[in-house]
Amino acid sequence: MTFDNYLQKLELTPPAQPDIVFLRRFMARHIERFTFNNIAVLLNEPLPLDTESLLDKIVQRGAGGYCFEHNRIAYELLSSLGYSTRLVLGRVLNNNIRPVPRTHRLTLVELEGETYLVDVGFGGSCPIGPIALNIQVPQQAGLDQFWVRAIDNDEYELVQHHVDGPFILYRFDMAQYTEADCAMGHFYSHKHPDAVFVNNLVVSRKTPTEVLMLTNHRFTHRTENQDVETIIDSSDRLFTLLTQTFGLCIEHEICEFLFERYVAPKLAASELQITSSGRG
Fold first, then answer.
1. Of 3, 44, 69, 118, which sits 20 to 30 A from 53 (CA to CA)?
2. Domain assignment present for 82
3. Would you say residue 199 lies in a domain?
4. Using N-to-C axis directions, what is the helix angle for 67-80 and 179-191, rounded to 10°?
5. What is the pLDDT of residue 263?
6. Listed residue (154, 78, 124) closest to 218, CA to CA
7. Are residue 96 and residue 231 in the same domain, yes or no?
């Protein structure tokens, strides 16, 4: 598997020299074409981070992956095309400021005097286009608006515009990181018993006009005009969703396992909470 195959899957031609037009197209098409998911984590499959293995998993087999996988091959591709890239690690906050490890990989790209945040591995909240660090107003990327703001201690945070105010997705700094640092964050993310991806089923795909996102038993389809939520209450529904909506090649038996182990318990807990609230 080569970068040529990667570009062919995205129907992209390498630019004569690095430019913002290609960067925008690349990000949008990668996020639309390759799903974000942690299914391999939940199945306890090996998750090597070498480029050849990732190209096979994400590009050739279409199995998707999460940030340490998606953003690794994006980083390698852009670097091979002459883009000035920088590996960065971040702390995922989701608007809850607390001490957490650096478990998110992203890329910074220097281009034509501007620094851009390039992230193709943050699931349903991922910006589908580059976000300029020096523009301190919301920048449109698909259905969403984002901006990067500087805070204390030489840190930055990616902020998403919500109707009820700014929503901090993650924080990062300008320290020098290596693939060894990624290996540590990757190990925590798919092996630590308290890690989010070890305890929840998460699948998403984004286009410029819609967001498709599954979190355990809740599937949300968001468009410009509405959000529609569907409850996944059987392994058959899960199988249909993963194969038809997300285009994943997955066996029904695996969907039965995922449903029984991760979806059904969250569904039962949600129903119990609703029942308890009704009695209150």
1. 118
2. yes
3. no
4. 160
5. 98
6. 124
7. no
d(CA 72, CA 68): 6
Average model confidence (pLDDT) across the chain: 95
Centre a 10 Å sphere on the Cβ of residue 37 and count the other Cβ atoms it contains.
Answer: 24
Residue 175 is encoded by which pair of tokens? 């320290």
pLDDT at 1 over 70: no
Q: CB count, 10 Å around CB of 183? A: 12
On whether residue 206 sits in a domain, the answer given is no
Same domain, 236 and 138: no
Residue 263, domain extent: 216-279
Alpha-carbon distance of 95 to 187, in angstroms, equals: 24
How many domains in the chain? 2
State whether 165 and 223 are in the same domain. Answer: no
Could you tell me the CATH number of the domain that includes residue 54?
3.30.2140.20
The whole-angstrom separation of Cα 31 and Cα 8 is 15
How many CA atoms does the CB half-sphere of 72 hold within 13 Å?
A: 26
Same domain, 171 and 227: no
pLDDT value at 271 more than 80: no
Would you list the DSSP string of 136-153? -S-EEETTEEEEEEEETT
166 and 79 belong to one structural domain: yes
Strands 155-162 and 165-173: antiparallel
Specify the pTM.
0.95
Domain membership of residue 182 (yes or no) is yes
Give the separation between CA 149 and CA 133, rounded to whole angstroms. Answer: 7
Tell which residue, 67, 61, 78, has the closest CA to residue 3.
78
**Cβ(228)–Cβ(246) under 8 Å?**
no
In one letter, which amino acid is 196?
V
pLDDT given at position 272:
67
Last-in-domain residue among 157, 191, 225: 191
Q: What are phi and psi of 268, to 5 degrees?
A: -65, -40
